[in-house]
Amino acid sequence: MKQGILDGIRVIDFTKAIAGPLCGTYLADMGAEVIKVEAIKPDFSRVSGAKVGEFAGYFTSVNLGKKSIALDLKTPEGKKVFTELIKTADVLLENNRPGVMDRLGFGVEACKALNPKMIYCSVSGFGQTGPYAMRPAYDLAAQAMGGTMHITGTEDTIPLNHGAPTADVMTAQNATIAILASLFARERTGIAQRVETSLLESVVSSLRAQTPEYLIDGKVPMREGSKFLSACPYEAYKAKDGYFVFAGMGTWAMFCTDILGRPDLVEDERFVKTDARMKNRPALREIIEEWAADKTVASIVDTYAAKMPCAPVNDFAQVCNDPHIRDAREMFIEIPLADGNKMTVTNNPIKMSDFRCRPLAGPSRQGGDNDAVLAELGFDEATIAQYRENGIIL
């Protein structure tokens, strides 16, 4: 296996839930040594949901490839361990509410004094400043406040979240970008900066196709199902055995003639221009679904996907068993677990030609690397044993 592009970089991952841990996993996939610092009490996600052996799938999927130490940071001894760890780090990744790290004694200034070369990355719900900074947050709250729930669903439904924790995932990606850029800047300038991002800002930033409707024209985008505000056909349609999507932009004549077999529609005043098609979506939808009524989703996609964007609306079984996704793009891979079992997990979506960018193993057991990490930091066997006996480490 090729080396990772971040080999030699040490990341201290003091996070939980999804956004912070997933960022740490992306860095581990690229070769960084990621040491997850956990509390003595296990994170709820370690013991929740579907499991393989000792390991929950949810926790494993966002903590791939990480070492683990578990310690009580409220004790002087626990703080000493964390202090020594900070001294060795290239990156500290934390997702506590603003002010928590300062109260623990590991705010930005304190850490910079210990290690001026360490990049300090904070992930939060609403940012480190502003009137909402101290509010607790999960993905749902960020989707709601950031605007995505307002446009998700149909006219006759309540606002819906995306189903996937998109605020968390986008924030993990943004934090990863920030850390990678900061590592690059450190090499060029010697400056190890503090960076931050939040769930709310990630959601707001994602709406770049919709927000101009309001910023420029004062129009508030509404819930329109799978439709797109400036294209038609562009939504999900019903076939004989399920749903599929057409995304036709700039292909109207071809769509009418080569797909629907209706050249008469090319100059139909209801559809000839994009604005007219959007105004007459219901009529066009009826035409498309009448055409698709005796066809299977597979036959439609197999026949027309090469001519215009066309895809099935897959359930999870179909996604996980699709030969392109599963095999050609290797989006699901089997990795070894620390208890001797194996688990199939979602792979990193980035492919690199010359460096590894994928998980090699699952996370360590909680506190599974306490002895090795503390010994490397200079703690002797007697001290480590005493810390364990006193409940300072697992």
Instruction: Provide the helix percentage.
Output: 25-40%
Oligomer designation = single chain
Query: What's the arrangement of strands in the largest beta sheet?
Result: 5-2-1-6-7-8
Q: What is the CATH level 1 assignment of the largest domain?
A: Alpha Beta
Per CATH, the architecture of the largest domain is 3-Layer(aba) Sandwich
Number of domains: 2
CA-atom Rg in angstroms:
25 Å
Beta-strand residue percentage:
5-15%
Taking pLDDT < 50 over at least 5 consecutive residues as the criterion, the unreliable ranges are: none
CATH H-level superfamily of the largest domain: Crotonobetainyl-coa:carnitine coa-transferase, domain 1
The tally of strands reads: 13
Question: How many strands, which pairing sense, and closed or not: the largest β-sheet?
Answer: 6 strands, parallel
The end-to-end span amounts to: 32 Å
Mean pLDDT: 95
CATH topology of the largest domain: Rossmann fold
Structural class: alpha/beta
Count of helix runs: 17
Write the layout of secondary structure elements.
Elements: E1 10-14, H1 19-29, E2 33-38, E3 51-52, E4 55-56, H2 57-61, E5 67-70, H3 76-87, E6 91-94, H4 100-104, H5 108-114, E7 119-124, H6 139-146, H7 166-189, E8 194-198, H8 199-206, H9 211-217, E9 234-238, E10 243-247, H10 252-259, H11 274-279, H12 281-292, H13 297-304, E11 310-312, H14 316-321, H15 323-328, E12 332-336, E13 342-346, H16 370-376, H17 381-389
Parallel strand pairs: 1-2, 1-6, 2-5, 6-7, 7-8
Antiparallel strand pairs: 3-4, 9-10, 10-11, 12-13
Helix pairs in contact: 1-7, 6-8, 7-8
